[in-house]
Amino acid sequence: MRKRAVAEIVIGVLYAIGAGDQALNTLRHSQDFYNDMADQAWIRPAEALVDKLFVPNSVTVTVLLVVFQAALAIAILTRGAAVRPALVAGGVFSIVGALTGNPAETIGFGVLAVIHFRLASARQEVKTGGDPASVT
Hints:
It contains six helices and no strands. It is mainly alpha-helical. It has one domain (3-125). The longest helix has 25 residues, at 103-127.
């Protein structure tokens, strides 16, 4: 199996695990989870966003997050035409994570965003006839 395909599958599995964790753990303590997120955010506008938008709507936000992560997992793991858009959506999600996280999370989510966009770009190159060997 090519490296790109393995990377995509790993990301899909991570989204499936994330959806399960959010559903089983975060949902029960969603307000505390988002309060902690606001406290740890080091970018002040992100702290305000989490505090004003996520905390008061914590259950709704968590349910939407579970649905979003599960949809990304399904789209990526089914290996069909939806993989590329799912990777782009995951990249945007990673940017949001980078902006709302602590400094270490900002770095981690930033790296994940680059990986998502690179994989999505590689899929486009293969689709349009680019050299697949140069993008793995």
